[in-house]
Amino acid sequence: MKVSLFITCLCDMFHPNIGKDTVEVLERFGCDVDFPEAQTCCGQPAFNSGYLRQSKKAMKQMIRSFEHAHYIVGPSGSCVSMLKEYPQIFVGDKEWEEKAKEFAEKVYELTQFLVDVLKVTNVGSNFKGTVTYHPSCHMTRILGVKDAPVILLQNIKGVDLIELPKKENCCGFGGTFAIKNAAISSEMAAEKSQHISETKAEYLVGGDMACLMNIGGMMSREGKNVKVIHIAEILNCR
Fold first, then answer.
1. In angstroms, what CA-CA distances link 130 with 40, 74, 170, 188, 199?
2. Tens of each residue's pLDDT in the chain, 238 residues
3. Going by DSSP bridges, is the β-strand pair 2-5/32-34 parallel, antiparallel, or unpaired?
4. Taking a C-beta distance cutoff of 8 angstroms, is the pair 37, 7 a contact?
5. Is the pTM of this model over 0.90?
6. Cβ atoms within 10 Å, residue 184
7. What is the CA radius of gyration of the chain?
8. Which of 23, 89, 180, 236 is 20 to 30 A from 113 via CA?
9. How far, in Å, CA of 93 to CA of 155, rounded?
10. Beta pairing class for 203-206 and 32-34
């Protein structure tokens, strides 16, 4: 099965190891993974800020970059959900509407692809520790990926998975929301940090690096010793 890796900006710039882990997990189950170097930002920051015309430039570049792809897999529910929005954004565009539809149909978040496409529920990882999982807003509410990450975590040998209180609450990041409404965002992150502390978990796991960086930053400032890891890292731990 041929898969093209969509790395996302944050993973590429700050946590490239997550891309490596994603590739290695996919290769473990027989995927032939390539990396289109022409890929760029998905356009979400500009789009969410109201710059539709400018964001479309990035979107068109993404569509061109992955024209050859059979499947497109990314380690981010938020960014993948943005790619799924392309058909609606290009509705009525004679040149790009059909291309956007074909593109979006090939796109999957990592855990979604493993469980729903490859039909894998146990990746054979071995990770010891108490873990709580943060279900990010875009991943669950827009993309609709809720069960796949939990199923995979539950089947990892050595993982003691503890449910996060009020897990559905936003961590306060929300892209530009954290910048435009910093005070509110900080309070939301502090609340999320408190809920994580209540679990007494050693590790916080999530499928969106932006959320994990936001929560991790708050917990670090509070002096809490909770390790923050992306789900790709725990899936690739052997």
1. 36, 26, 22, 24, 9
2. 999 999 999 999 999 999 999 999 999 999 999 999 999 999 999 999 999 999 999 999 999 999 999 999 999 999 999 999 999 999 999 999 999 999 999 999 999 999 999 999 999 999 999 999 999 999 999 999 999 999 999 999 999 999 999 999 999 998 888 889 999 999 999 999 999 999 999 999 999 999 999 999 999 999 999 999 999 999 999 8
3. parallel
4. no
5. yes
6. 13
7. 18
8. 89
9. 44
10. unpaired
The residue written with tokens 């709580």 in the block is 132
Whether 130 and 200 have beta carbons less than 8 Å apart is answered as yes
Q: At 96, which amino acid appears?
A: W
d(CA 196, CA 203): 9
E-strand ranges in 124-214 read 126-134, 157-162, 203-206
DSSP state of 202: S
Query: Residue 81, Cα to own-chain centre: how many angstroms?
Result: 9
